[in-house]
Every structure is written in C-alpha cells, then in structure tokens.
Specification:
The complex is a heterodimer. Chain A is an alpha/beta fold. In chain A, 41% of the residues lie in helices and 18% in strands. Chain A has helices spanning 9-18, 49-62, 128-133, 149-156, 181-209, 221-230, 235-251, 255-264, 273-288, and strands spanning 2-6, 22-23, 32-34, 40-44, 70-79, 89-97, 103-104, 116-121, 144-146, 165-173. Chain B is of the alpha/beta class. Chain B is globular and about 55 Å long. Chain B starts with 14 loop residues before the first strand and ends with a strand. Classes of the chains: A alpha/beta, B alpha/beta.
C-alpha cells in the first residue's frame, strides 16, 4: 500500500487526475482518494504539523501497516535559500522541527534521480528573520521550509521505519507569501509526471521490502497447532519450537519424524507443559548434534 | 535482496551525514575528500539517524550511508568477557567507528546495532587524551577494531597509522588491530612496532563464501599475513569464531593446509600467537541477528544460552576447539595458543 499525504487539495489535484484516483465516501474528518486496485490511498491532512500528525495517526492507526507499505508526503514549500528555485521539485533528505529542534532523517536507499534538499518545519508561514535566528556561526540553514513534514515524520515513525518514509516538495515561493490555489496547482502540474514515475519506483522497491512469508509454518497451520497443543506449548514454547523447525528446514533435519515418533510412543499429547519442555529439549539436543 | 531492474539503489556512501559539531573537524574534511560525489547532509546528532526505530539494517547494507560524528562520554571501555585478553591485565577496547564495510552473517554488530549505516567518529584527539590518562596509571592493551574493520577503511580514515604513531611515544601501549582486510600496502608502509599487533581473522574458504560477504578470500588474507611477517610485524591469527558447518573437520583441515602452503611451517611458527574460539554471542544480540539472516543455518543453530551468552553445547565446543588446537600443536608452542575460556 502507498499512503499519500498532501496538505491541500490544490497540491493533490494534479496527482489525483494523473493516477485516476477516486474519492472515498467521507467517514471521518479527512478527505481521501483511492486507486482502483486500492493499493494507493491519498489523504488531505490540512495545514500545519499538528493537523498532519493527527491525520497520519488516524490513517495509519485505522489500517494494518505492513512491512512493504510506504508513506509519501508531497506538496509545496517555501525556499529559505536562494539555491532552490520556484517550481523545482526536491526529495527531502533531512527534516528539522523549528520548535523542538528534533531532526528526522528518512532513509534514502532508492535512487529516484531527483535533486535533494533539507527542510525546516515551522508553525507559521515562512519568516526569514525567525528562521535565521536559530542558525548562527557555522550552522547551515536548511534549504526549504514547510509546515507539515516534521509532524508527519514523527507520527508515521510510530508505524513505519525510515526506509518507508518519502518526502517530496515543490518550491512555491520564497517566503513572500503570495501564493494562490491556482498558483499551487500550476506549479504541481509539470512535476506530477516525475512524481508518478517515482511512485512506481518506490512501489517496486516496497515489493522487495515485503518480508517473506513464514515458510516454516505456512501451509501447515492445522498440523502445527495440533503438535503444539500436544506439547501443551505456551507462547514461549511455540516460539522456541518454531525456531527449531526453521533451523531444521535450513539443514534438512527431519524434525517431523520426532513428532511422529512421539505420537507412536504416546509421549504426546503431554500431560503438562513440563513434559512438553522436556520433549523440546530432546529435539534441541538432537538437532545440536546433527551433522557432527 | 532487491533485484528488480526498475529499482536502482544508491551506491554506498552516496550520502554522508555530518553532525554540525563535526563539520569543522580536520578529520571530517579529510574523509569528505575521499567522497567528492557524496551528498553531504548536516544533521544534529548521529543518533538521529543511527538510533531510529524500525530500521531495516539488511536493506541499509545494500545502500549504506556514512555518518561523521563526535563521540562524547567514555571513549575507552574495559574488555568484554567474551573477548580474549591474551593474558593482559589492563584490557580495553574502543570504538572509533560503528559497523563495517564487510558483511558477515554471524557478526555481533548486527545484533548490537539498530542500523546498517556506518558511523565514524572524527574526534580522535579526545580518544588519545583519555588513553594518555590511563597510560599515566598503568600499561594498556587496547583493541581498536572490534566494532568495525579499521584496516578496511584505513585509506580514508588513517586511524591505524595514527595509533602506530602514538605507540612510538607510549611504550606502555599495545594496540591490537583486528581485521579481515587484505591490507598489504598498509603493512608494507608501516614500520614494525612491538606495541602493534595485527590480528587476522581466518576462516575456511567455504565459511567465507557462505558467511563472510565482501571479505577477501582466505588466500588473500594469508598473503597479507605473509607480507606482514616478512616485514617484521607482530601478527596474530584468530580462528575465532569457529563455526559448526557440515563436514567442519575437513573444512578446517583444508584451511590449515592453505595456511601451510602460503606461510609455510616456519611462517606459521613466527606468528605472535593464535586465538581459538567457537562462536559465542550475548544472548540479547542473537534474536536481531537471526532476524536479519533468516536463511543462515550458522546463525539459526539452536545454541545453548548460559549466563547471558549463546554458544554451542559444551561437547560441540570442546570438540571443535580441541580439534583446532591439535591441528596447530605441531607448529606452535603452547604459549602461542590462546583458547577463549569463560
């Protein structure tokens, strides 16, 4: 699943059209769109870090976030330094919260072929004087400024790792404050094809990130549970048994033969968990010597 | 891991995160010179990157970043019980870098660190200051390459050479540099010093192929050992960790054959000493280590856990280590053989 977040409709509209996303009947406070395959969910967060964090928390908290899911925050930003020009799109490699001074660093593992920039998140419209007060001496000002990214990052980190978080911003202004919804839309439009290509790359990467299903117990759930019940296995014993079965699979040890022998010898079902622990220890000792 | 052609990962060290307080360090400048095309990203503190939650180190190792930072607090630590002290009373280790260029399935660093990125600390002068404080009280045996492979990154850090220079001014200091690197050039460049020991980890080639990714081959390491011996350096051979693999006796015997072929019996006799130890790891590190290497039988082995350490059962351990000792005994005197004991 790709979770897309943008602050305002004018930022999201070009991507909604490009990806043919359909509006989801509104059930909560946030407007959402989804793809036909329902593998993309776009949500408008509203403006500001707190609103963005609340939105991300609500969306990720209500679904089941998997290891292969990614979050993409996109939208517009102001330019603090002169080296970032209006209309250019940047991938964000570091985010700093102006108020808390906390620093967030998404993992940049996939090369999307984009320019990169650092970003400062503040609570108000960009004010060059206020931002420059915090940076003195050798410290370098971040390049871009927005009002949502730090909140999104902090909230999303409760569910996702840094390799799952991606931030893209289009420079809309240099802090002069003169920006309109139509202006935002017109800035996002030319960047949208590139953004769509990048999303496809990230989606391909997210397929690689998906953890392999558990080969040990996949396809044998019913039998496995019968054996575990026979051992009177607690949760901890089940974990130990699973680890032993995993090792057995790797080295080709016929662990099922143990279980079947115990059944023939009527040692399972065990009378209590202590007997089950002894049987697991027996299996462990046999596997420790395997191949010697 | 990710083999989709549509997905291109960044090359290693494409991004170099530099703590703001480390930005002006001469060592930072030296390191950055070696990576002119790297994107430098200022950060507040290395832990903002290294200690993030829910990281996937195995993914990060496909595209590792470099982090340059200043280490604060205690810089020299008493040696850990699982490590061999070689009879030295004042045994310390230090961490000048976190994580390694190499990628060994069984490495404790994978269990200890939450990140696959590499951190290098640039405030060497602070380490030296703390070391000199200790040296004023007693001799120090210092291992400098536990949490990384310093020889593998010597070309852009220069830390081995820095300690080499330090030893000359501090006769009470002995430094062990543990490595798997084929650092022949370094051994040729440095004058032998009684206070510097190069300790090469050796494994059978089948183990190297299966578990020690991106490392030089056994032959390459042995050729480096030979160069070091010929140059007069103190060389230690570390058969540690020994790993239980199918037909392990044959594998380790073949390793010894290779050692004798390249070093010769006389060369083997000239090593400072050898250390022998089967695999062991703090129990708390085993789970994250296993999580990152689900296909590695070596790590998924059902170890025994005693006193907080996971290791082979006594009989297995004894069998492997005594076998190794008996294979080396014809070539070394007992004082040259150190076997790890609890």
């Amino acid at each position: 699943m790709i979770y897309l977040f943008a602050a305002m409709h004018c930022e999201a509209e070009p991507l909604i059209r490009a990806m043919s996303l359909k509006a989801v009947p509104q059930q909560g406070p946030f407007h959402q769109w989804t793809s036909e395959k329902q593998d993309v969910l776009l949500t408008l967060t509203g403006i500001g870090s707190y609103s963005a964090a609340a939105c991300v928390g609500a969306v990720l908290g209500s679904g089941r976030v998997d290891s292969g899911d990614i979050l993409v925050s996109f939208g517009t930003c102001g330019s603090i330094r002169k080296d970032c020009r209006t209309g250019e799109i940047y991938r964000i490699h570091s985010i700093e919260d102006l108020v808390s001074r906390r620093c967030y660093v998404p993992d940049l593992l996939v090369d999307c072929g984009m320019k990169e920039a650092s970003l400062l998140t503040g609570g108000q419209i960009l004010d060059h004087q206020r931002t420059s007060v915090w940076y003195t001496g050798a410290c370098e000002l971040p390049q871009l400024y927005d009002m949502e990214s730090a909140g999104i990052c902090q909230a999303a980190s409760l569910w996702m790792g840094p390799h799952q978080l991606h931030f893209f911003r289009v420079v809309s202004d240099t802090g002069d404050g003169n920006i309109t919804p139509e202006g935002v839309c017109s800035l996002m439009n030319p960047c949208t094809p590139q953004l769509v290509r990048v999303l496809r790359k990230l989606q391909a990467f997210s397929d690689c990130m998906e953890r392999e299903p558990d080969e040990v117990t996949a396809g044998m759930d019913a039998g496995w549970n019968v054996w575990m019940d026979g051992l009177r296995a607690t949760a901890a014993m089940r974990q130990q048994a699973k680890a032993l079965a995993h090792y057995a699979m790797l080295v080709g040890y016929p662990w099922e033969e143990h279980m079947e022998r115990w059944q023939r010898e009527q040692r399972i079902p065990c009378r209590n968990k202590q007997e089950g622990v002894r049987l697991l220890d027996e299996l462990r000792e046999a596997m420790q010597k395997y191949g010697l | 891991m990710c083999q989709d052609d549509a997905v291109q990962m960044f090359p290693p060290f494409s991004h170099i995160y530099v703590e703001r307080q480390a930005m002006e360090s001469p060592q930072t400048a030296r390191i950055l010179e070696h990576f002119p095309s790297g994107t430098v990203v200022p950060v507040r503190h290395y832990k903002d990157l290294f200690n993030r939650g829910r990281q996937r180190p195995e993914l990060q190792r496909q595209s590792p970043s470099l982090v340059l930072a200043r280490k604060t607090g205690t810089l020299l630590y008493p040696g850990a019980p699982v490590c061999q002290s070689f009879g030295n009373e004042h045994f310390y280790y230090t961490s000048l870098a976190m994580n390694c260029l190499f990628d060994c399935d069984y490495c404790f660093l994978k269990g200890m660190y939450p990140s696959g990125h590499m951190v290098v600390f640039v405030n060497l002068e602070d380490y030296v200051r703390e070391l000199e404080t200790l040296l004023a009280e007693h001799p120090v045996y210092l291992c400098v390459s536990y949490d990384t492979d310093l020889c593998a990154i010597e070309s852009w850090t220069g830390y081995v050479e820095a300690f080499h220079a330090l030893i000359r001014n501090h006769p009470g200091l002995t430094v062990e540099v543990r490595t798997k690197a084929a650092c022949t050039g370094l051994l040729r460049r440095l004058e032998p010093e009684p206070g510097m020991i190069f300790a090469f980890t050796l494994s059978p080639q089948v183990v190297i192929d299966a578990c020690e990714h991106r490392t030089p081959s056994l032959r390459q390491r042995l050729e480096t050992v030979r160069t070091g011996l010929q140059a007069g350096h103190r060389i230690r051979l570390c058969f540690d960790p020994m790993l239980l693999i199918p037909d392990w006796e044959t594998a380790y015997a073949e390793m010894l054959d290779c050692i004798l072929e390249i070093l010769g019996p006389d060369g083997l006799r000239r090593v400072q000493d050898v250390s022998i130890g089967s695999f062991r790891i703090a129990a708390g590190y085993l789970k994250p280590l296993r999580h990152q290497a689900p296909e590695s039988a070596v790590i998924q082995y059902p170890f025994c856990v005693e006193n907080g350490y996971a290791q082979y059962p006594d009989a297995v351990r004894e069998g492997m280590e005594t076998r190794m000792m008996s294979m080396l005994a014809p070539y070394l005197v007992p004082e040259q053989i150190f076997r790890w004991k609890e």
